[in-house]
Amino acid sequence: MTPESVMTIGRTAMEMTILVASPVLLVTLVVGLLVSVFQAATQINDASLSFIPKIIAVLATFALAGPWMLTMMTDYMRRVLTDLPGVIG
């Protein structure tokens, strides 16, 4: 196992993590921004007002993007486990 192969595996793992997490993080960011603008405009400062829409948005994102995320992760794990004998020996 060479240092280059270790770096390639690590880089691929980080790319996959960012790719799979980005839909949920982006939706949470947009919903949080919209709720913050709404709270600033109406001067309503309730903690649950910012928490509940984010949870609903995250659940909707998992419902819509969940199959894609699962497919990406299983394909990645299949590639890693298939290439493992070649990397070790």
As a percent range, the share of strand residues is: under 5%
Instruction: Characterize the biggest β-sheet.
Output: none
User: What's the end-to-end separation, in Å?
Assistant: 7 Å
Helical residue percent band:
over 70%
Strand tally, please? Answer: 0
Q: What structural class is derived from the secondary structure elements?
A: mainly alpha
Number of helices: 2
The domain count comes to 1
General form = elongated
- Could you spell the SSE succession in H and E letters? HH
Mean pLDDT: 91
Catalogue the unreliable spans: none
Taking all Cα atoms into account, the compactness measure Rg is 19 Å
Description:
This protein has 89 residues and is mainly alpha-helical. The chain has one domain. It is 92% helix and 0% strand. The protein has two helices and no strands. It has helices at residues 3-42, 47-88. It is elongated. The termini are close together. This is Flagellar biosynthetic protein FliQ. Belongs to the FliQ/MopD/SpaQ family. Its main location: membrane. It is a multi-pass membrane protein. It is found in: Cell membrane; Bacterial flagellum basal body.
